[in-house]
Protein 1
Amino acid sequence: MEFSSKLLERAVNEMSQLPGIGKRTALRLVLHMLRQPEAQTFQLADALKTMRQDIKFCKNCHNISDIDICEICSNPHRDETLICVVEDVRDVMAIENTSSFKGLYHVLGGKISPMDGIGPADLFIESLVLKVKEGGVKELIFALSPTMEGDTTNFYIYKQLQGYQVETSTIARGISVGNELEYTDEITLGRSILNRIPFESSLKS
């Protein structure tokens, strides 16, 4: 792709690094911004810069937040004895949209995937096990996507918790195997949380 401006080329190259954005789409977006009022482009740039500089990760659950402890963890009406284990912040948003879960979350930051070079030490598993060790947690709900990597991660955590007084359950398989959680419709996802099953039962299926 030939560019008449090095500034345009740089902007397109940077934009095309975003997931799902190819060079042609990046060019269309950049040209669109050039046609908008200058202030609008500056507002976008400032929002991205401010987000990158000031965004925090909750010290309790690792969810994205504006403060040290996110609004979910600091909400006194949430059930602190019930923790839903998810892969990333998109899954928290998806489950929250169902209005079916009133506990807390624990964001792992990914799932175990040897093919991608991601092991247990690369995820927030140790802090989850520590929460259980400290007591107060009655049930963990494994809500990772029903993929091979998700199941592997669930099983690894389950083995780490052997011997501790905590129930482990997994979301009901109304969600198609291999699907990512964030793309599941809210009704199906909400029902899968409410109709969760003991994790041991999922190992036998």
Protein 2
Amino acid sequence: MPLYEHVFIARQDLSSQAVEQLIETQKAIIAEGGGQVATQEYWGLRNLAFRIKKNRKGHYVLLNLDAPPAAVAEMERQQKINEDIIRHMTIRVEELAEGPSAMMRPHDRERGERGERGFDRDRGPREDRGPREDRGPREDRPRRDRDGEAA
């Protein structure tokens, strides 16, 4: 069977129990269609990039599916009808990711190769530029256009 990653966003005013009920409903639809939910992750109540149906936040849920296309299509159809789900997206993947998704990993791991501010620390000194006070005020420097040429 094909493998899918499915993410849906539920309304912000739902309780955690209501979101769990939505997840169980989606799992039941997939099971009826002959598939299974390999893993599920609740990403929590997160801010939306823009307002969707008067919501500024939403409960994010990820489902990794091993299901036939008909079961996934039925689940998406049910989600379009459900007023509690404001957005959903399904992507077919070659294999399901092992371990936690990128949203569930701690941020410290991502900054492992980088310093506290997120800058690379292995670049070394910037001898090509010289000290800041030797460069002069910004007004004295020539202006550059988008191509990097002096204007």
Protein 3
Amino acid sequence: MTLILLNKPYGVLCQFTDPEGRPTLADYVKVKGVYAAGRLDTDSEGLLALTDDGKLIKKLSDPAHKTPKTYWAQVEGLPDQDALQKLSRGIELKDGKTRPAKAWIIPEPIGLWTRDPPIRHRAAIPTSWIELTITEGKNRQVRRMTAAVGFPTLRLIRAAIGDWKLEDLQPGEWREIQPAGRQ
């Protein structure tokens, strides 16, 4: 079994081909036969698992397995305790209520790379960072959750999938790892 952890750059499609010629995973990972276990939107960055193991793909991407995924969200404004509590209890979205999440304010992550293009900057509105751990994966869920409590996401980075962490991978870099229980 092959298991790859990739730091997906901003602007890259979470697939290996694109008829419109946009950047894809194939521009970074030259390993044949692996597929993304879950997705990150084109405008999201960070940790993406790729594997040739269909059971592992299902385990990581099916909400029934409740695999925790941790995100760093740079949001517009300074969230208060009420907003964090709402995120922690779950948010009512158009497609249903989200499961409870873990949410807290963090300092800007150490060693964070510069995004190209940079996020929009407005001098009159500060930004802050929230670390949010969810166990499902509704479409654009983190962005919709932060917007629902009044703090739109400006930049979104997946930092962890279960026990696997982004660590020092830079955008476009990847490493192959041994899954737990395999030698």
